[in-house]
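From the thread on structure requests for the teaching lab: each student submitted one protein with a one-line request. Submission from student K.M.:

"Model Matrix metalloproteinase-14 from Lasius niger, tokens only."
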Amino acid sequence: MHFTYKTYIFSRPGSRWRTKNLTYKISKYPTGLNKQEVDKEIAKAFGVWSGETDLTFTRKSGHENVHIEIRFEVGEHGDGDPFDGPGGTLAHAYFPVYGGDAHFDDSERWTIRSYRGTNLFQVAAHEFGHSLGLSHSDVKSALMAPFYRGYDPHFILDRDDVDAIQALYGEKTRHGSRGPSPPAEEDPELCKDPKVDAMFNTKDGETIVFKGKHYWKLTDNGVASGYPRRINSTWKELPTNIDAAFTYRNGKTYFFKGTQYWRYINTTMDGDYPKEISDGFTGIPDHIDAATVWTGNGKIYFYKGAKFWRFDPASKPPVRSNYPKLIQNWQGIPNHVNAAVTYKGYTYFFQDNAYYRFNDRTFRVDDADPAFPRSTAYWWFGCKSANRGTLGNDHWPFAFANNLDVADIDTHDDYGSLDSVGDIILDA
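Reply posted by the TA:
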């Protein structure tokens, strides 16, 4: 069942705020949630948009005048558009020219980080898009699509949403694609040798780097303070020198080394591991180079040497007979990658001291200035003395092949539902 958002579309196209420093307040909270938790989720929802622009959002309280007022109401609540009870319309919002306020139906079961009920963060982020001037999108994967699709623990803003908000407020002021200028503190080990073993996102959206016996947490500015840490101090019984890792839609993280793999829930081993790759991931070779869940279709991709495999745990067999295929089908990506990770709607591939940004919408390495490959040390780890330009003499390691097989990258593949697949997916 689809539940709808509602916005007031009589506003003229392109309506936007004249200032980039906006204020908001929550005048009326939902009845079923802790106020502090609501404050965090609302701030996170605004952060979806400030992460791609120079917009700032400051929460106010009391009787202060603000740009965006947020209220949780039931039925008729004074704006001439009453809510309809559980289901149906979840919320509605006004464009900037009409005030920018956002109202949520308090008859809904608002939840946080749960597949049950209606996810507050995702609905709020959608409504605030309207409060900033965005209309509904006809791109099904976009946040601004007119239907609520359910909780997504690995939510990222679609490229369509990014393009739309930046058309109104401009791009975020920063040097390149990995956030602001490098941080003041650098990690000597990563700056000296930026080649990594594996990279992955946790179910909470943190980006983790594995190298040897250590791991680092990354931020938009580079390496978080307090790192490196020992892998086995956090993921007990996990070996060092991991080959690859990814977190799947079930919220579980999978680590691969040699012929074996391990499964963890957060940092706790989930059962009796290790297990053989040939048993849990039939059709996938041992000693893989990298793995990631691709945002284009939600399926798992494994890379080794010059080849890649697509693994779909909902299909039988999970690997189609026309695999493996050549990595050169991923236009601009070299063979023998060391790691792969998704980040804000892109897939990043790492090889030795360099990385490539693969555009999941155009199915090729992005054209950019400086061109790819770029220095992992500078752009990801904040090493100020590293090369910030294009690495190597050639921008592209080989001639482009044809586009990926449409059947293999169809962004409208049926992902299934975690409510129905859940923990039985992937060797449970």
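TA comment: Residues 6-14, 175-184, 393-428 have pLDDT under 50 and may be disordered. The longest strand covers residues 21-28.
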